[in-house]
Amino acid sequence: MAEEKKRAVAIVLAAGQGKRMQSDVAKQFLPLGGKPLICYSLDVFEKSDLIDEIILVTSADAIDYCRSEIVYKYGYLKVSAVIEGGKERYHSVLEGLHAANHYTMHSAEVQEMDLDTEELGKPDYALIHDGARPFVTEEIIERNLEALKTEKACVTGMPSKDTVKISGEDGYDADTPNRSTVWSIQTPQSFDCSVIYDAYRALSRTEREVLAAGIQITDDAMVVEHFGKVPVKLVEGSYENIKITTPEDLDIAEILR
Known about the structure:
The chain is built from 9 helices and 11 strands. The protein has helices at 38-47, 63-74, 89-102, 107-112, 138-147, 193-205, 207-212, 220-228, 247-256; strands at 8-14, 31-32, 35-36, 53-58, 79-84, 125-130, 153-159, 166-167, 173-175, 183-192, 233-236. It has a 7-stranded mixed beta sheet with strand order 5-4-1-6-10-7-11, sandwiched between helices. The chain has a two-stranded antiparallel sheet with strand order 2-3. Strands 8-9 form a two-stranded antiparallel ribbon. Helix 3 (89-102) crosses helix 6 and helix 6 (193-205) packs across helix 8 (220-228). The longest helix is centred in the middle third of the chain and has 14 residues, at 89-102.
């Protein structure tokens, strides 16, 4: 008997302002090879047979641009919703998870994008990806979803090439972890939908206490580890799966594309 295919949604985050890019244009919309940078990751998710749906999370003032100049212009038929994100990254992720579980799209938008609403069911897996990370590959997606067959949470990353130092409050070297155990974390970060959704809702309910305790939420795995008490599996990504953060990164991306 054939194994039932699990539904997977890619939640692509494009709400950041990218202040370190020193540009009036958000980094995910900067041109790379003649098209907006975010299109490179959307291309991969759109073409992948492993991804059933894409939810694009952006800032309020970029929603119309994303719909007309990204989704419609480039024909991303898997994009079921373009929604407003939140103040912080984790707020945007929660909005994407809400959309994945409850679908707030207007029927006119569904018809315009030629989507079959009967096929839009709740996903089993969620892959959360930074829109400013253009070089995700089909192989990375496949490794993430393969890991989710036995795990509830996994994150893409690569072993660190550099020795890492832990800084003390005085600015001196406080510790040097074994480099063989240190990974640089990338996206997508992939989860069983119920696990990541429940963890983010728990964060939302206790956000004030979390911030008061000085806990900084910098990635999705932290939310699952803290609120879901679920172990997170490391999955091999690629050293080319870089995040565009500074002008120098964009120069590197021009070489890699």
